[in-house]
Amino acid sequence: MTALAELHVHLEGTAPPDLIRRLADRNGIPVPDGVFDGPDRFKWVDFLDFLRTYDRAATVIRTAEDYRDVTYEYLVSCARQGAIYVELLVSPDHAQSVGLPPSEQQAGVAQGIDDARRDAGIEARIVLVAVRNFGVQAAIDIAQSHAGERHPYIVGFNLAGDEAGYPPAQFAPAYEIASRAGLGCTVHAGEHAGAGSVREALTLPVTRLSHGVRAVEDPALVQDIADRGIVLEACPTSNVATQVFPSYEEHPLRRLYEAGVKVTLGSDDPPYFGASIGGEYAVARERLGFGEGELESLTRTAIEASFADDALKRALLKRMTAKDGRSNL
Ligand code: HPA
Ligand code: ZN
Q1: 63: domain CATH number?
Q2: Does 155 map to a domain?
Q3: Residue 173 CB-density burial (10 A; 0-12 exposed, 13-18 middle, 19+ buried)
Q4: For ligand 1, is residue 16 a contact (CB within 6 Å)?
Q5: 86 occurs within a structural domain
Q6: Could you tell me the maximum CA-CA distance found in the chain, to the nearest angstrom?
Q7: What is the pLDDT of residues 80-113, one digit of tens each?
Q8: At 210, is the secondary structure helix, strand, or coil?
Q9: Distances (CA, A) of 13 to 48, 50, 85, 92
Q10: Which of 180, 185, 254, 266 qualifies as a FRET site for 127, CA 20 to 30 Å off?
Q11: CA of 110: how far to CAs of 64, 67, 75, 106, 139, in Å?
């Protein structure tokens, strides 16, 4: 089986109900009302409701140690599934909203990455994510405050949240700052809005698109994405769970791949959507018709399109081809 790599997962969205409860207990606070629908299920009915539940659940993640534990537990679980690299979407807005300075949040995440590397041999990097429904100025502030000195694990910039309500082009000033500061850029588009949103997103200085799959609505756009070598961070289970597509069989991943678009796999918000990175590779194999060599090419694409530095990319590619899948990263 090929090694796995994932470019698209929201860190706060990796914490399962049990961990959310443990963190709330440790911090001496209740889990906010409306978060759970049973002992092991988050409660949400549609995408915007999911975003509200996500925000509420994330309020129990309060300290650097909490962020360390969320990061560590997720990465170790990925390593057990065969992953060698994960890019984590980390939201400074969520830290700030509970009074935690983003630098402390990032120190906690970095500690989780270091501990997971030591214990499970997995590598990870941080992509900062702004929440579009918090407005353009908040996104600019995040880009601006990380344009100079920043933690070396911070390698990229993204924009999440309510895509349909907050189209991408107005965030151009934030992207100009992030891109000029040397951060790799990607943006959620073509998930809960259509091909027009993807076209607009491509006016930003991005090399990847988070989701991007609704580009399939416009064949000329698909061709453009293929020609430009823009890489899609596809999350099929998330898309089926939030009803972007009614079933795996109707998901366009295979069609996009066959049209020459570079694609990768991500779990997005694993416990909310019943997803995992191993599960996404299994879906691609069992439901979407990808063979072993093709799955390996998805991992290779993910490593090549990652925002990690060249030395780490080379080490990861070498590890992919190592016979026993191990190497000293
Ligand atoms: N999509 C958009 N925004 C998000 C998501 C998502 O899956 N998770 C957290 N914020
Ligand atoms: Zn996402």
Answers
A1: 3.20.20.140
A2: yes
A3: middle
A4: no
A5: yes
A6: 54
A7: 999 999 999 999 999 999 999 999 999 999 999 9
A8: strand
A9: 14, 10, 18, 14
A10: 254
A11: 10, 9, 12, 6, 22
At 229-256, the pLDDT tens digits run 999 999 999 999 999 999 999 999 999 9
Quote the pLDDT of residue 327.
46
Q: Which residues are marked as active site?
A: 191
Helix, strand, coil percent content, the chain, rounded in steps of 5: 50, 15, 35
Per-residue confidence band for 323, with pLDDT thresholds at 50, 70 and 90: low
- pLDDT of 8 > 50? The answer is yes
Q: What residues contact residue 3 under an 8 Å CB cut-off, 6+ apart? A: 82, 83, 84, 299, 319, 320, 325
Q: Where are the alpha helices (DSSP H) in 9-123?
A: 17-26, 47-58, 64-80, 92-97, 102-120
Flag whether 328 is in a domain: no
Distance CA 233, CA 188 (A): 9
pLDDT for 328 equals 43
* Separation of alpha carbons 159 and 189, rounded Å: 9
Rounded to the nearest angstrom, the distance between the alpha carbon of 4 and the centre of ligand 1 is: 22
Q: How far apart are the CA of 191 and the centre of ligand 2, in A?
A: 9
Mutation to probe ligand 1, out of 51, 158, 267 (largest number of atoms < 8 A from CB): 51
What residue's CA is closest to ligand 1, atom 7? 268
Probe ligand 1: pick from 9, 10, 53, 273, max atoms within 8 Å of CB? 10
How many folded domains does the chain comprise?
Answer: 1
Query: Is residue 329 included in any domain, yes or no?
Result: no
- Residue 121 is part of which domain span? 4-320
Q: pLDDT averaged over the chain? A: 97
Q: What is the tens place of the pLDDT at every residue in 207-223?
A: 999 999 999 999 999 99
Question: How much distance in Å is there from the Cα of 91 to the middle of ligand 1?
Answer: 11
